[in-house]
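PROTEIN DESIGN WORKSHEET
SECTION A - STRUCTURE
LENGTH: 283
C-ALPHA CELLS:
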C-alpha cells in the first residue's frame, strides 16, 4: 500500500493534488465496479462511491483503532518515531495537516500525531484491489484524480473539513524523495481559504530511507509540527491568492524541515519574484 495524494481523473485527465492538468487517457479507460479491475478502468461513479462512503460513514472506528493500536507502538519501537510539537494540533474543529511527502509511509506516521481520525487523498490506483480499497477507505482515504482538476475530490475534502474533521494534504502534489523540498501547489491554500480550517505545518524526515524494494528497514523517523495558521474565509479565492496562502504555509513547513536538519529549498520569496513560474503554478 502506498498512499499518495495523487491519481487519475473522472474524464480521463491526470491531475495533481490541487487540480493541475498533466495529460489525458484514452476512452478505453472507463467503466466497471470498484476493486474488480485495474485502476485505469475505474469509472467516475466508482470513485464517487468511495468518496460518498467517506462522507456518510467516516472511518471504520473498529478498524481504525485496531490499526492504530498496532502501528503506533510499532513506529515508536521500529522507527524510533519522534513526534515534536503534537500540542499544536487542535483537539477539535477543522484541521489541515500540511506536510512534505517523501514516502508511502507518510500518511500513516502523520496519523500517529493525533488521536483524532485523519482523512487523506490517495491515488485511484490504490483502489484497484477490493481488499486494499476497503482497508484504505475504512482508514479514511478517498480517491483523487490527478490531471484535469478533480473537483469531486476537492469537494470531498472541503466537506470533511466543514464538518469539523482533520485532513492530511501534501502541497507538493507528489512524493519528492531526495534533496530539498519541492514547490507547493495552490490546493492547500484554496482549502484553507474556503473552509477556514486551521493549518498545521508538519515536517516529515526519515521515511524516504525506510523502504528498499520489499524491505522495510528500521530507520529513525521524526515529525515536527509548527503552530497552527489561520486564514479568513474566502468562498472563491483567485488562483494567485490561493497560491500566496500556499506559499505562506509552505514557508512554515520549510522552517520545521530545516529545524530537523533538512536541506533548504527554494524560498517562497524567490518563487514570488519569478512571475512566469508563479503564473504557471497558479493556473
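SECTION B - SEQUENCE
RESIDUE ASSIGNMENT:
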Amino acid at each position: 500500500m502506498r498512499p499518495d495524494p495523487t491519481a487519475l481523473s473522472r474524464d480521463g485527465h491526470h491531475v495533481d493534488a490541487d487540480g493541475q492538468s498533466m495529460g489525458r487517457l484514452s476512452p478505453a479507460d472507463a467503466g466497471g465496479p470498484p476493486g474488480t479491475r485495474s485502476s485505469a478502468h475505474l469509472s467516475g461513479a466508482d470513485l464517487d462511491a468511495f468518496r460518498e462512503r467517506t462522507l456518510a460513514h467516516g472511518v471504520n472506528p473498529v478498524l481504525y483503532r485496531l490499526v492504530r493500536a498496532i502501528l503506533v507502538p510499532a513506529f515508536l519501537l521500529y522507527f524510533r518515531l519522534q513526534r515534536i510539537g503534537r500540542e499544536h494540533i487542535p483537539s477539535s474543529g477543522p484541521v489541515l495537516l500540511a506536510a512534505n511527502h517523501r514516502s508511502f509511509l507518510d500518511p500513516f506516521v502523520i496519523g500517529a500525531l493525533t488521536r483524532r481520525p485523519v482523512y487523506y487523498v490517495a491515488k485511484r490506483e490504490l483502489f484497484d484491489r477490493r481488499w486494499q480499497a476497503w482497508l484504505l477507505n475504512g482508514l479514511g482515504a478517498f480517491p483523487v484524480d490527478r490531471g484535469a482538476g478533480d473537483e469531486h475530490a476537492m469537494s470531498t475534502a472541503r466537506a470533511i473539513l466543514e464538518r469539523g474533521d482533520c485532513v492530511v494534504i501534501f502541497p507538493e502534489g507528489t512524493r519528492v524523495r531526495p534533496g530539498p523540498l519541492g514547490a507547493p501547489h495552490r490546493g492547500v491554500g484554496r482549502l484553507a481559504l474556503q473552509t477556514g480550517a486551521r493549518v498545521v505545518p508538519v515536517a516529515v524526515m526519515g521515511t524516504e530511507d525506510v523502504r528498499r524494494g520489499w524491505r522495510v528497514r528500521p530507520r529513525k523517523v521524526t515529525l515536527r509540527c509548527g503552530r497552527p495558521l489561520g486564514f479568513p474565509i474566502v468562498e472563491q479565492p483567485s488562483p494567485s491568492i490561493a497560491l500566496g496562502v500556499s506559499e505562506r504555509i509552505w514557508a512554515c513547513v520549510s522552517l520545521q524541515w530545516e529545524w530537523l536538519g533538512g536541506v533548504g529549498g527554494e524560498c517562497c520569496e524567490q518563487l514570488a519574484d519569478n512571475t512566469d513560474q508563479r503564473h504557471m503554478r497558479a493556473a
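SECTION C - NOTES
The first helix runs from residue 44 to 57.
Confidence is low (pLDDT under 50) at residues 1-39, 267-276.
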